[in-house]
Design brief:
- The structure is a homodimer of 87-residue chains.
- Chain A is of the alpha+beta class.
- Chain A has helices spanning 11-22, 39-52, and strands at residues 2-8, 26-29, 32-36, 59-65, 71-77.
- A 4-stranded antiparallel β-sheet of chain A has the order 2-3-1-4, with helices on one face.
- In chain A, strand 2 (26-29) and strand 3 (32-36) form a beta hairpin.
- In chain A, helix 1 (11-22) runs antiparallel to helix 2.
- Chain A is globular and about 35 Å long.
- At the A-B interface, strand 1, helix 2, strand 4 and strand 5 of A face strand 1, helix 2, strand 4 and strand 5 of B.
- Chains A, B: GO terms for molecular function: hydrolase activity; metal ion binding; RNA endonuclease activity.
Chain lengths: 87, 87
């Protein structure tokens, strides 16, 4: 399945969140990761994020799609994806 | 159709970008808007963003889905959506 993960972590946890996210997905923009993921890895990803999250400060939204068949992705402006310019 | 808009604008343009986005979609998290939108409004939204964007500094990704039938949305941690706590 295809996942879009958007996250908003307190400064002191954001790097760890990104590190966890990048083990499973691709960084595409500030606070946004996406990619194909197996169900098993999706469960693992959520568990790792759950252990990191401070529910009073941090927020994660996970959009999952069985397939990308019915979707489109458009980029405007600067292309930020790819692993070299991580922020 | 359903749209997820993630944006990364330079500080001096980010409020304008959010203002444009919120005319068509719902703010759900820092730099993330989503919602159902007509094709006509989607074209208008993109035009307005296009006029604002500095292609050397700003980045927008638009994920569009014909329907939400094949998708799921999960939130972890703090729920940031709703119009009262805009950042």
């Amino acid at each position: 399945m295809f996942v879009i993960l958007v996250y908003d972590f307190a400064q002191k946890r954001v790097n760890k969140a990104l590190k966890i996210g990048r083990r499973y997905l691709h960084w595409v923009q500030n606070s946004v990761l996406e990619g194909e993921i197996s169900k098993a890895n999706f469960v693992k990803l959520k568990k790792e994020l759950e252990m990191l999250i401070d529910p009073d400060e941090d927020s994660v939204i996970l959009y999952t799609f069985r397939s990308q068949k019915y979707s489109q992705r458009e980029e405007m402006g600067l292309k930020k994806g790819g692993d070299d310019n991580i922020i």
